[in-house]
Design brief:
The complex is a heterodimer of chains A (117) and B (110). With 117 residues, chain A is mainly beta. Chain A is built from one helix and eleven strands, in the order E-E-E-H-E-E-E-E-E-E-E-E. In chain A, strands 2, 4, 5, 6, 9, 10 and 11 form a seven-stranded mixed sheet that branches. In chain A, strands 1-3-8-7 form a four-stranded antiparallel sheet. In chain A, strand 9 and strand 10 form a beta hairpin. Chain B is an all-beta fold. Chain B has no helices and nine strands. In chain B, strands 1, 3, 4, 7, 8 and 9 form a six-stranded mixed sheet that branches. A three-stranded antiparallel sheet of chain B has the order 2-6-5, with no helix packed on it. The N and C termini of chain B lie far apart (28 Å). Classes of the chains: A mainly beta (117), B mainly beta (110). The interface between A and B is medium-sized, with 20 and 23 residues.
Chain lengths: 117, 110
């Protein structure tokens, strides 16, 4: 069964960076893209970007370009998402999702990131 | 303000049929397929409908999707208490070169 397992909750100060990990199963890692979606408390879903673990190609949401970076570690089938220069409105649950044939069919359990001074 | 427009709330009684709308533009729904996600309280979203009207394995046929022009709809028939959740539509946006979501619809089963 394909699963996406994310790292634990983080608390960061404004201006800092956070890096969230998402460990995938082997098949998913090599054959499917991974997107990141976040959800601020009580709010809706926001797509952040996509990475191909196969070749490292990325596509970031326009409003996050320059502050977000997605990378992969092929040796551990893990995808990483880093947000820099954190602000209070980056407080959210961050999900990694398998992007399979144009739909997000498998979701990680979510990682709560809190930005607070 | 979300790119796709959904009503913030919907409701129905057990056994009823309810529909949730999702309105977009020629740059998203008008030129690409629509997916729907269900988010039960305190859990991660789950894929409910993909490619406008396809159900993943395990999703009951009480759930159906449709698309016409720049709008899409999710219909739930035989409403059950466990259907109480938030529902989100999503589509690829060509000029933004990314996915956009609706603001979500909170479904209450009365």
């Amino acid at each position: 069964q394909v699963q996406l397992v994310q790292s634990g909750a983080e608390v960061k100060k404004p201006g800092a960076s956070v890096k969230v990990s998402c460990k995938t199963s082997g098949d998913t890692f090599t054959t499917n893209g991974i997107s990141w979606v976040r959800q601020a408390p009580g709010q809706g879903l926001e797509w952040m970007g996509w990475i191909s673990p196969y070749n490292g190609n990325t596509n970031y949401a326009q409003n996050l370009k320059g502050r977000v970076a997605m990378t992969t570690d092929t040796s551990t089938s893990t995808v990483y998402m880093e947000v820099r220069s954190l602000r209070s409105d980056d407080t959210a649950v961050y999900y990694c999702v398998r992007d399979f044939q144009g739909a997000f069919d498998i979701w990680g359990q979510g990682t709560m990131v809190t930005v607070s001074s | 303000q979300s790119v796709l427009t959904q009503p913030p709330s919907a409701s129905g009684t057990p056994g009823q049929r309810v529909t949730i709308s999702c309105s977009g533009s020629s740059s998203n729904i008008g030129s690409n397929t629509v997916n729907w996600y269900q988010q039960l309280p305190g859990t991660a979203p789950k894929l409910l409908i993909y490619s406008n009207n396809q159900r993943p394995s395990g999703v009951p046929d009480r759930f159906s999707g449709s698309k016409s022009g720049i709008s899409a709809s999710l219909a739930i028939s035989g409403l059950q208490s466990e259907d109480e959740a938030d529902y989100y539509c999503a589509a690829w946006h060509d000029s933004l070169n990314g996915w956009v979501f609706g603001g979500g619809t909170k479904l209450t089963v009365l």
